[in-house]
Amino acid sequence: IRGHIRGGPGPQWGAVESDDDMVSIAVGGSIISGLGDLSGSIMSDENIGKVKIGGSVMGTAGVPVQISAVADDNTPVAIGSVSIKGSAVFLNLLAGYDDDDPERGSAQLGKITVGGDWIASNAVAGALRGGDGNFGTLDDMAIGGATGSRIASILVKGQAIWTGGG
After folding, report:
1. pLDDT tens digits along 18-41
2. Which of 32, 52, 72, 166 is the most buried (most CB within 10 A)?
3. Alpha-carbon separation of residue 143 from 4, 60, 146 (angstroms)
């Protein structure tokens, strides 16, 4: 995609979705969420090899951008690598998820590189939000009790910024 991915007013508007593997996806510009749930997102029911974004990822607290893949039966690596030239703002990077539904607890994320800041974003491999509805808190657990989930590495060249709340 030479330009941007822009979400819209309805659910999954402007989303890139596949029922099969995505070898790679390159976005020359930025990914910007819209008003509808999962708008401006990238989702695969199986694996995504590489994601390369030439700009930033710009979600909102109400509608974060989501990049998600389940992982197929042959490999636990749901998303091979993610490279974002700019910043990641309200991004949910989810391994083991089909759209917004948790599916595979043993899913893995490859190398994540962000050239700018990491703001109010999540990188999640095979984990469920606990009762508080937030990732990264003490009440989280593995999807289906599975083990083997992992994140290969995260490199943020700017700042990692918490916005308060969950």
Report:
1. 999 999 999 999 999 999 999 999
2. 32
3. 32, 25, 6
CA distance 51 to 80: 8
Structure tokens at 134: 């937030």
Q: What is the pTM of this model?
A: 0.94
Tell me the longest C-alpha to C-alpha distance in the chain: 41
pLDDT score of 6? 97
Tell me the Ramachandran region of residue 2: left when phi exceeds 0, alpha when psi lies from -120 to 50, beta otherwise. Answer: alpha
Residue pLDDT, tens place only, 65-116: 999 999 887 888 999 999 999 999 999 999 999 888 888 889 999 999 999 9
Name the nearest CA neighbour of 154 among 88, 98, 76.
88
| 48 neighbors 78 (Cβ within 8 angstroms) | yes
Residue 165, pLDDT score: 54
Beta-sheet strand order (sheet of 118-119): 5-6, 31-32, 57-58, 88-89, 118-119, 160-161
Sign of CA dihedral 87, 34, 38, 45: negative
